[in-house]
Amino acid sequence: MNVILLGPPGSGKGTQGALLSERAGLPRISTGDLLREAVAAGTPLGAQAQGYMDRGLLVPDEIILGLIADVLGSPGAAGGVLMDGFPRTVPQAEAVDRLLGERGRQIDRVLLIEVPEHELERRLLGRARVQGRCDDTPETIHERLRVYEEQTAPLVEYYRRRGVLVDIPGVGSIEDIAQFIAKALDL
Ligand code: ADP
Predict the structure, then answer these.
(1) Is the CB of 178 under 6 A from ligand 1?
(2) d(Cα 130, Cα 147) in Å, to the nearest integer?
(3) CB 165 within 8 Å of CB 156
(4) Kind and range of the H or E run holding 23
(5) How many other C-beta atoms can be found within 10 angstroms of the C-beta atom of residue 164?
(6) Residues 10-45: pLDDT tens digits?
(7) Known catalytic residue: 13?
(8) Is it the case that residue 160 has pLDDT exceeding 90?
(9) 98 flagged as catalytic
(10) Which helix (H) or strand (E) holds 187?
(11) Structural domain span for residue 18
(12) Is 52 in the pocket of ligand 1 (CB under 6 A)?
């Protein structure tokens, strides 16, 4: 099964992704984590990505496409994956379709985690204080929410038209939301 977790920054994709990956036995691929690892390791790709991430902008598609081609094509992904934080643009979604299609696979479900904007801001500001992630400043938070609306929200229609999108209410206890997701995937 190939599943995408879609939702704005702060919607809980990371938290739910980790739980679901365990529960469904699906390897989780997070482009955000891969990029942060590349930055920490000081690779050329990390150096290129960092400036965008620090400003709350999306890393250009060609950089992301290189990353995901490697992981989606790897033997570990052959039994299905949980994609967290990508695709984030229409060209990325088309690339995922192509990469899976070449292997006779497809996107089976897209979970859209919905959280009101004032709650997203509250969570992200809270996380900024606790974790000190360098892209969690008030200015970049605002920018990331704007970029989500502009570049990622169009994917909702892209997948809804195909009948694979499921709406998940993202406010409530972590366990309640996890249950909702499990039901949406018939787990
Ligand atoms: P969040 O969803 O909370 O913004 P992520 O860890 O998914 O956190 O992403 C952090 C940053 O990494 C993004 O703001 C963006 O700069 C970059 N990034 C992650 N995934 C992608 C992607 N698929 N395409 C472009 N940029 C990405």
Answers:
(1) no
(2) 24
(3) yes
(4) helix 13-24
(5) 17
(6) 999 999 999 999 999 999 999 999 999 999 999 999
(7) yes
(8) yes
(9) no
(10) none
(11) 3-33+81-184
(12) yes
C-alpha 36/C-alpha 46 separation (Å) is: 7
CA 125/CA 121 separation, integer angstroms: 6
Q: 11: which DSSP letter?
A: S
User: What are the tens digits of pLDDT across the range 99-117?
Assistant: 999 999 999 999 999 999 9
pLDDT of residue 163: 97
50 belongs to a structural domain: no
**Residue that the structure tokens 């192509």 belong to:** 98
**57 C-alpha to ligand 1 centroid (Å):** 8
> Is residue 133 in some structural domain?
yes
Classify residue 72: in a domain, yes or no: no
Domain total of the chain:
1
SS (H, E, C) 118-184: HHHHHHHHHHHHHHCCCCCCHHHHHHHHHHHHHHHCHHHHHHHCCCCEEEEECCCCHHHHHHHHHHH
Determine the residue type at 22.
Answer: E
Is residue 148 in contact with ligand 1, taking CB distance under 6 Å? no
Cα–ligand 1 centroid distance for 164 (angstroms):
23
The average pLDDT across 133-146 equals 86
